[in-house]
Amino acid sequence: MFAQSERIEGKIVKNFGETFDVESLDIKTNTSEDFKVIFDVSQSSSDKSVINKYIVTAARFLNMHANEGMKKEQLKVAMTIHGGAWQDVLNNEAYKEKYGVDNPNLELINELTEAGADIIICGQTASFRGITKDNANPNVKFALSAMTALIQYQKNGFTFIKF
């Protein structure tokens, strides 16, 4: 039987990405290195009033490593958004017009950006779906494509994680 663990509030992204303390680790976290990761998100919640759990993963990544003693400066996070996740980067007005509810990802993306994360919309998806700088969350960066951003970030030492 496993003991119930208490969730730990994040040190970097306060309102999202709670984690657990894990004891008796066999693989220790090397807290002296820098961790650079680019997450690739192409899925969203089917219920448009529910936050995208894949975007939350970036907050969990930052928070769990900070809870292990890593400094914010050691943690570099980027995320490409494309495919079925395109609507998650809309500003609240555009999202509400389309789905009738507030964008549940808006504050999460804002807090990730404040924490130094790059949230990147695929320019090809954006063009196909009619996403512009006028109807997107202003914290979202536009790239030629998700593929282009993934290549460039990986060439700059970021590790690729696909959902």
Describe this structure in words.
With about 160 residues, the chain is of the alpha/beta class. The chain has 5 helices and 5 strands. The chain has helices at about 55-65, 90-100, 105-115, 125-130, 145-155, and strands at about 35-40, 75-80, 120, 140-145, 160. Strands 4-3-2-1-5 form a 5-stranded parallel β-sheet, with helices on both faces. Strand 1 (about 35-40), helix 1 (about 55-65) and strand 2 form a beta-alpha-beta unit. The model has no long low-confidence stretch (mean pLDDT about 95).
How is the topology of this model organized?
Elements: E1 35-41, H1 53-67, E2 75-81, H2 92-99, H3 106-114, E3 118-122, H4 123-129, E4 140-143, H5 146-155, E5 159-162
Parallel strand pairs: 1-2, 1-5, 2-3, 3-4
